[in-house]
Amino acid sequence: MGGSGDPPEGTPEGGPGGGEEEYRSVVFDESFIRAARLQEFSAQERLADHAPAVRRRAPVRRGLSRQALVLVLLIAIAFGTAIYMGVRHPYQGPAESGPPAEPLRMTVIPLAPEGEVPGTGDTDHLYASSPAAQFRIGAEGIPLPAARRTAHFSDGQVTNALSIAKDYIVRSSLYPEVLTGDQIRPVRVLLDPDQLDQFDQSFAHPSADGRHAPTGWLVRFDSSQAQLADRSIRVQGTLQAAETDASTLEVTADHTFVYALRAVAGEKAKTAEASLFTVRRELHFRFDREDLRLHQTQLVVSYVQAGPLSCAEDSTNRLHPLLAGQTAKEGGPAGTDPYATGGTTALCGSLAPGSQPKV
């Protein structure tokens, strides 16, 4: 029964408080209409085609699902790449690297002439009259041998080790800026990082202790005393590679270098006679797979003989060649105290007359 103010049948349909009250919150806005699946034909369309009152609209394509699919795919690819790089990362692989590099052990032996150092103004004649007459010039005198694979290293890895060793020899024995200048970086960049502290200590505080002589790392002359008279340095020697264990290759180098030098004395140096200076270097290089990958090496043994030098001169930091017309200073090498347990034994040899040019 209705209220006192309502008709007996209740509120009329369509009137205030009628059936439309429950639809007042529904708003048929433009987006709602556009999203409808059914669309009413216009009156003109119905008259012309006698079509049904409504037609079904094609579903609206939404981009969200496709974008979400692409996003998921990208995430999956990134995740897979991260896993792959974690497994195959080039810097990962302690098993590929050998033990830490050993300190370089070095010996530098000066060779004193028995008489006056021969010289001439013609460097070609100087070389031709010496045992270096058939030596090749520069890096051509350091040919690479045929590379043969070992039990654990391929042909390419053996060739790589030989090439790095040759590169070190060329930079440390033939570069003019190293021989008569103060450049050491061309050599330093080829060393295994484990040896850099020893290398730097050698040049900061040279010592004849068999560990810290700059002339054990490279060839360099006293630039205030001698200069190159000819940059066509003569070279002859050999390279050999062998496997020492499953993770290590070793290259042995034995080369003789012959330099034409002239005194540094202002204008007189232009007319000063040239003389030959000979250095024999026996070097032992060691490589693990990390060294081969990074084009670096471990120099573990350096045995150097050089002359003509005076045994009384210190050959630790630089070589002080005896030039044309000079003779060795009187007296032998620096004194050695056999009772000093921390000291080193001074070594000096005699330069055979047959090793000098016949001028």
Strand and helix layout:
Layout: H1 30-34, E1 38-40, H2 43-49, E2 54-56, H3 64-88, E3 105-113, H4 123-128, E4 136-137, H5 155-173, H6 176-179, H7 185-188, H8 196-204, H9 214-217, E5 226-245, E6 248-263, E7 275-287, H10 289-294, E8 298-307, E9 349-351
Parallel strand pairs: 3-8, 3-9
Antiparallel strand pairs: 1-2, 4-5, 5-6, 6-7, 7-8
Describe the structure.
The structure is a single chain. By secondary structure, the protein is an alpha+beta fold. It contains 10 helices and 9 strands. It has a 7-stranded mixed beta sheet with strand order 4-5-6-7-8-3-9. Strand 5 and strand 6 form a beta hairpin. The longest helix is centred in the N-terminal third of the chain and has 25 residues.
Keywords:
two-stranded antiparallel sheet, alpha+beta, seven-stranded mixed beta sheet, 10 helices, 359 residues, elongated
Distance between the termini: 145 Å
Number of strands: 9
- Tally of contiguous helical segments: 10
**Considering DSSP H and I runs of 4 or more, what fraction of the residues is helical?**
10-25%
Main pleated-sheet profile: 7 strands, mixed
Structural class, from secondary structure content? Answer: alpha+beta
> Which word captures the global form?
elongated
- The fraction of residues in strands falls at 15-25%
Q: Return the average pLDDT rounded to an integer.
A: 83
Helix-strand pattern: HEHEHEHEHHHHHEEEHEE
Q: Low-confidence parts lasting 5 or more residues at pLDDT below 50?
A: 89-95
Gyration radius over CA: 43 Å
- Going across the biggest sheet, name each strand in turn: 4-5-6-7-8-3-9
